[in-house]
Design brief:
Largest sheet: 6 strands, antiparallel
Number of strands: 9
Structural class: mainly beta
Protein name: Mlr4654 protein
Strand content: over 45%
Number of domains: 1
Helix content: 10-25%
Shape: globular
CATH class: Mainly Beta
Radius of gyration: 18 Å
Keywords: Signal
CATH architecture: Sandwich
Length: 117
């Protein structure tokens, strides 16, 4: 019985994080259209990935579903479409410092991103 408990404990400690489905709700309060990407600080994943971006029209709102690892730290980067010099969050290259543009992946949750003028 002790051996079984030890084996179960070892399995729990070595099992990978499970995937979580959550949403990111983006409110573009700008008069410009923006492009947005999400970047994992833990795994290096990028959403939507494959060289694509989420496009949010001026003054529009968009809900973006993502699948991430529960507990994963995710940061957002946004920029004006056609001018990535005007950016917010961690920027288009995920290289800008930002204390308020990251969140933790949590199953069945919604994180809100407000893009101000």
């Amino acid at each position: 019985m002790t051996m079984i408990r030890a084996l179960l404990a070892a399995l729990l400690l070595t099992s990978p994080a499970f995937a979580a489905d959550m949403s990111v709700f983006v409110r573009n309060k700008r008069s410009d259209g923006v492009a947005l990407e999400l970047f994992s600080r833990d795994s290096g994943k990028v959403w939507p990935g494959d060289g694509k971006v989420y496009l949010i029209r001026p003054k529009a709102r968009k809900s973006v579903p993502i699948s991430c690892d529960n507990g994963e730290r995710i940061c957002w980067g946004a920029w004006v479409v056609g001018d990535d010099q005007v950016s917010a969050g961690v920027g288009p290259d995920n290289d800008q410092p930002c204390d308020t543009c990251c969140f933790i992946c949590t199953e069945h949750s919604t994180e809100t991103v407000d893009l101000a003028e």
